Amino acid sequence: MTVFEGRFTDAGGLRIAVVVARFNDLVTGKLLSGCLDCLSRHGIDVAETSSQLDLAWVPGSFEIPLLAKRLASSGRYDVVITLGAVIRGDTPHFDVVVAEVSKGVAAVARESGVPVIFGVLTTDTLQQALERAGIKSNLGWNYGLQALEMGSLMRSVPA
Questions:
Q1: Which residues, including other chains, have CB under 8 Å from residue 38's CB and lie 6 or more apart?
Q2: Torsion of CA 108, 52, 146, 113, to 10 degrees
Q3: Residue 68 lies in a domain
Q4: 40 is in an annotated binding site
C-alpha cells in the first residue's frame, strides 16, 4: 500500500499565488499577515521581489473565484490561496456571496487540478471574524500551512 502525505518542510520550489479580498480589509489584512508569516517560516520567500509568491487583490470575496481561476490555469502556480471575509448583515446578500464564492473556489480546484485553499471567513459578526483573524488565533496561518501541505502532496501523487 502506498500512502501519500504532504509535508510542511518540503516547500522548496513551490510557486504560490494568494488572492485577497479588499472588502473587510481589517480582517483580510490580518489573515494575509498570518498566512505570509506561516509561509515565510516554512521557507517560502515572501519578499516583494520574490519569485515564489505572487499576491493579487480583488474588490471583494465574490470576485475571488474569477481571479483564482486565471491564476490556477496559468500553469505558473502549484497552489492558490484565497483570503476573504464575508460577514452576515441584515439582507440575504451574505447567503448569495458565501454560496457563490465557496462553489466557485471548489470549481476552480476541480477544473484546474491546482489546489485552491478556501480561506474565506464566513461569520455572523465582525467580532467573530476578528477572533479568527488574530485576536484568538489567526486562520491565515492555517491556510498557509494547508497550501504547503497540498503543494507537497500534489507533487508526490503521480498524475
A1: 140, 141, 142, 143, 144, 145, 148
A2: 30
A3: yes
A4: no
* CATH at 114: 3.40.50.960
Domains identified in the chain, total number: 1
Question: Domain limits at 145?
Answer: 16-151
Is 60 within a domain? Answer: yes
pLDDT one-digit tens code per residue, 30-80? 999 999 999 999 999 999 999 999 999 999 999 999 999 999 999 999 999
Has 90 been labeled as part of a binding site? Answer: yes
Model-wide pTM > 0.85: yes
Question: Per residue in 70-106, pLDDT tens?
Answer: 999 999 999 999 999 999 988 889 999 999 999 999 9
What's the rounded Cα separation, in Å, for the pair 97 and 24?
14
Q: Is 6 part of a structural domain of the chain?
A: no
Q: Is 8 annotated as a binding residue?
A: no
93: annotated active-site residue: yes
Grid coordinates given for 76: 505558473
